[in-house]
Fold this sequence. Notes:
The complex is a heterodimer of chains A (597) and B (159).
Chain A: E1 6-11, H1 14-18, H2 21-34, E2 41-46, E3 58-61, E4 65-67, H3 75-85, E5 94-95, E6 102-103, H4 110-113, H5 131-136, H6 141-149, H7 152-162, H8 174-183, E7 190-195, H9 204-211, H10 213-227, E8 231-236, H11 241-256, E9 272-277, H12 287-294, E10 318-322, H13 323-335, H14 337-340, E11 351-358, E12 364-369, H15 374-381, E13 391-396, E14 402-404, H16 415-420, E15 429-434, H17 439-453, H18 459-476, H19 482-498, H20 502-506, H21 509-517, H22 519-527, E16 542-544, H23 554-558, E17 564-565, E18 573-574, H24 584-588, E19 594-596
Parallel strand pairs in A: 1-2, 7-8, 7-10, 8-9, 11-15
Antiparallel strand pairs in A: 1-3, 3-4, 5-6, 11-12, 13-14, 13-15, 16-19, 17-18
Chain B: H1 8-20, H2 28-39, H3 44-54, H4 58-67, E1 79-84, H5 87-91, H6 94-105, E2 118-123, E3 135-137, E4 140-142, H7 150-158
Parallel strand pairs in B: 1-2
Antiparallel strand pairs in B: 1-3, 3-4
Amino acid sequence: MEKYKMHILICGGTGCRASASEAIQNNLQDALKAKGLEEEVQVVMTGCFGFCEKGPIVKILPDNTFYIEVKPEDAEELVEEHIVKGRKVMRLLYTDPDKKEVISDSKNMGFYKKQIRIALRNCGFINPENIDEYIATEGYAALGKCLSEMTPQSVINEIKESGLRGRGGGGFPTGLKWEFASKNDADQKYVVCNADEGDPGAFMDRSILEGDPHSVLEAMAICGYTMGADKGLIYIRAEYPLAIDRLKVAIKQAREYGLLGNDIMGSGFNFDVEMRYGAGAFVCGEETALIHSMEGLRGEPTVKPPFPAESGYNGKPTNVNNVETFANIPVIINKGANWFNKIGTEKSTGTKVFALAGKINNVGLIEVPMGTTLREVIYEIGGGIKDGKKFKAVQTGGPSGGCLTEAHLDTPIDFDNLLAVGSMMGSGGMIVMDEDDCMVSVAKFYLDFTVEESCGKCTPCRVGNKRLYELLDKITEGKGTKEDLDLLRNLSTVIKDTSLCGLGQTSPNPVLSTIENFYDEYIAHVEEHKCPSGQCKALMQYVIDPELCVGCTLCARNCPVDCIAGDRKEAHIIDTAKCIKCGACMEKCKFNAISIQ
Amino acid sequence: MAKIKLAKSKVDTLVEICKSFDNDGAELINVLHKAQETFGYLPAEVQEIIARELNVSVAHVYGVVTFYSFFSMVPKGEFPISICMGTACYVRGAEKVLEEFKRLLDVPVGETTEDGKFSISCLRCVGACGLAPVVTIGERVYGRVAAGDVADIIKEYQS
């Protein structure tokens, strides 16, 4: 292999690619060639660095310089200054917003300080399309250790000892799940990787598959070894083209290296992996629904038992784990259960990856030890609320979770604590909301999602959620009554109690948690017919303050329906009957003269 | 059963697709993916041929097609517009952006404009939450879109 003096790492995650990271890569390569440096400096497209807010990210090794918001036209300067002259390009470095200090090493950034990256260990570090780079970071060493030194039961014991719990949402102990699957004898067994990430606003599984696909393949092979399965299936969303491509490359390379296929590492163990594509159905994240979908059927869940460990894909024992769960396995085998279970809390060991998004300064992908508080995540890692607004709520667990408030900010995040306060871990979406977000509308947003995604099998979920949505819609239209709130509560409880699968059992959570935590807001909607955050269109009016309006005509020129009248240098007036409440005028006004009433 | 009107070459392509999956009913979803990739959508005739080739009922094929949101029975526009309705995009104003697209193109979600140029659909999280709200048109991704940008975006495709 060539020996390079320096490496330039470019984020090749979906977000940064959308902001032209491929053009940056090409320009950097051209600039290096022009200087005759292409033999000494390697340009690598890696997986996601996590700091999506300031993408595209470029990192230079060995000095760990972290450049943000790089544009293709910056490539030449980066090569000329940093690579040739050894001077950092200051204008592309990150500036700490509080201390106003320029930080060049990512280790010193608030965003990274509290993170421990286990599942994301290789994302933003290696080239995901090169198996050699994975092997160079202890890749496939865990599989080698299992096959040569450990019995299937001792591997299972190690995973049990580590305390690893399923990262897909349920939090079921992984080692126990593997043990069940290993105890059922059959001529054929399957290992399934659930990569059907459906939570709106969650993208951790995709980032792992894009940034480190081999870690998942290795873990699936280890799982196959423990339960006696020689076939692995990855069920992935068709909407993830980049992750699909990288997985295909990884499977091909692993086969070429004899790390998948027959007689792996001369051990006599056979294991191969195939891909199966989802087609856009949230319910397919539920394991029985996922299995039916892989069989070419409608993805409807069925009653457990029988559990997939007894009768799963094609009626054979099947073990289903989520992407992030698998990504943890090789590290646990390499470093030992006792290293892993010291991280995190007693009942939730290890770390958790969260997709931090919404009204927060540092949108991105983070991995923190279990037990980190919401406050640390939002303020220290997330850098606080955008535009200096006030924090209102944080939503965890996607459509199955709840909205937590200021009062919950010091709750250490783990499976049990989040359940105790009426939300859940879920797969790891974390959406931050500020004072401008209406919590009734947020609940309605989630119900809209659930109504669309309910598979329709159980009446409470199919019909009940629709009724919940209608009630919420009525409230946001200003037609709700106080009795509707009781009805919302009762109906929610019935849906939770009587639905078959996780979707229906958790779908009312956004409603219940917002009623519980933001009761005043519901009351304002139903009693005063007002939306305190000015989000509910039917309850608001845009008005121009004649004192503040200078008559610049900017609002009138931008109004898409021409409902703003007024002469130049005279105060303007909005015709509320014609106004479509698009907010364009308020966005454009430079004098803060337009407000919502 | 409706009379099949598809051109023979298209029928042959479909038969080939089914064959490449061993005419196995369990491969239905993969067959549908491939068929939609080839034809752009899955009209009734296509579903009937697939049912015949895989030896399953048309009702079964229809049941699967309508279950999954990725499959469509109507053709998409030349420039398919997708507005991300993931939570991150939603709280950063995706709904206003969607309203503006609907208003300017005068077409509801899930349908195509009369000239066949644009279709609007909502999708759930493309995972570029750092760029929220996100709109994709074909392969192109637009980040941090405001309602005021919509007219200009549409203009790019109208010439």
